[in-house]
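Fill in residues.
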C-alpha cells in the first residue's frame, strides 16, 4: 500500500501493549436514510464503536441506523453543520484511533484498514487523498477540483506541507490529535440546532488539516477512491463553502503556531492506554 509521509513531524514513541488499537468510527449524517444501510454494511469487522451524529434528520436516518447496526451509538449535535457534528462525535469517541466517515456512500468503509495501518505504522494523522497513485474520485466536479487545487497549494506554501488533497473529509487520527484539532462542540449560550459558528461547516476539514500541519504532526497520506453519493443531494456549496475554507486558512494563519513539542506524557486512559502517541502540544504566544 502506498503511504506518503507529507512532511514535518514530531518525535514519535508509540508503545504497543495491546495487540490491536481500538478504532472508533464517527459518521455525521443528515437525511442519509437511503445511503446508510450500505455504508454500515461495509464497515469491516473488529471496529470498537460506531458513532452516528444525527443532524436533526427528518427522514429515517436514526431508525435505519439502529436497524442495520443495533450496537451503533447515536448522538445529536449542539449546533448545525458537518463540523459541529464531527466535534460532537469526536468528544463522544473513546477509541485509540478515530476515523471520519461520511454517511452518503462517498467514503468507502472498506478502506478503513488502510487508514488504521498508516496509524499503526507511526503516523499521527492518516489523511485520505483522491489525488495520488491508486486513488481517484467519481464525485468531484471540475469546479470543486480547481478550488481544491488552489486552496491546497496555498496551505502547502504557508505551512511547508505536501498535502495533495486539502478538502477531503476521509481521515483518521490518534485520539491525542484532538488536543491539536481543538474543536469545540460544547453548548454556547443562545446557540441551537439552527446556529452555525465558525468551524461548524464544511471548513472543518481544512481547519483540521491546517492545525495538524501547524502542530508539525506526522501525516501519512492514504490513497482513497471517492464515490458519488448514492442517493440524495449534497449539503455543500462550492462557492460559499470555498470562501469559508479560504477564510479558515487566513484565520488559522493569524492565530499563531501550535507545535508538537515531543514531550513525553503518560495519558490516563479509560480504554486501552496502549496506542497513545507520546507527544503533546505547546501553545506559543501569537
Ligand atoms: N450531522 C450532520 N451531518 C451533516 C451535516 N451536513 C452534512 N452532513 C453529513 O456530512 C457528510 C458529507 O456531507 P455531503 O453533503 O455529502 O457533502 P459533500 O460530500 O462535500 O458533497 P457531495 O460530494 O456532493 O456528496 C454526509 O454524511 C452528510 O450527511 C450536518 O449539518 N449535520
Ligand atoms: Mg458527500
Amino acid at each position: 500500500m502506498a503511504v506518503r509521509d507529507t512532511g514535518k513531524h514530531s518525535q514519535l514513541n508509540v508503545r504497543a501493549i495491546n495487540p490491536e488499537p481500538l478504532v472508533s468510527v464517527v459518521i455525521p449524517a443528515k437525511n442519509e436514510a437511503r445511503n446508510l444501510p450500505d455504508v454500515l454494511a461495509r464497515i469491516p469487522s473488529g471496529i470498537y464503536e460506531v458513532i452516528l451524529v444525527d443532524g436533526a434528520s427528518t427522514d429515517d436516518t436514526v431508525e435505519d441506523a439502529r436497524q442495520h447496526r443495533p450496537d451503533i451509538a447515536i448522538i445529536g449535535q449542539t449546533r448545525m453543520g458537518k463540523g459541529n457534528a464531527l466535534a460532537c462525535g469526536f468528544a463522544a469517541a473513546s477509541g485509540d484511533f478515530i476515523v471520519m466517515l461520511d454517511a452518503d456512500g462517498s467514503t468507502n468503509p472498506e478502506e478503513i484498514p488502510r487508514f488504521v495501518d498508516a496509524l499503526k505504522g507511526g503516523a499521527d494523522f492518516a489523511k485520505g487523498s483522491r489525488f495520488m497513485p491508486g486513488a481517484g474520485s467519481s464525485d468531484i466536479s471540475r469546479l470543486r477540483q480547481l478550488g481544491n487545487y488552489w486552496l491546497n497549494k496555498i496551505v502547502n506554501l504557508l505551512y511547508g506541507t505536501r498535502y495533495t488533497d486539502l478538502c477531503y473529509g476521509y481521515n483518521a487520527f490518534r485520539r491525542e490529535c484532538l488536543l491539536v484539532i481543538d474543536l469545540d462542540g460544547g453548548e454556547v449560550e443562545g446557540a441551537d440546532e439552527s446556529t452555525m459558528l465558525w468551524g461548524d461547516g464544511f471548513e472543518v476539514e481544512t481547519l483540521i488539516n491546517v492545525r495538524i500541519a501547524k502542530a508539525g504532526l506526522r501525516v501519512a497520506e492514504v490513497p482513497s477512491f471517492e464515490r458519488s453519493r448514492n442517493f440524495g443531494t449534497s449539503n455543500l456549496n462550492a462557492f460559499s463553502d470555498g470562501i469559508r475554507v479560504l477564510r479558515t486558512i487566513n484565520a488559522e494563519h493569524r492565530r499563531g503556531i501550535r507545535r508538537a513539542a515531543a514531550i513525553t506524557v503518560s495519558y490516563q486512559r479509560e480504554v486501552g492506554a496502549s496506542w497513545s502517541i507520546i507527544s503533546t502540544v505547546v501553545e506559543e504566544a501569537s
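The radius of gyration is 18 Å.
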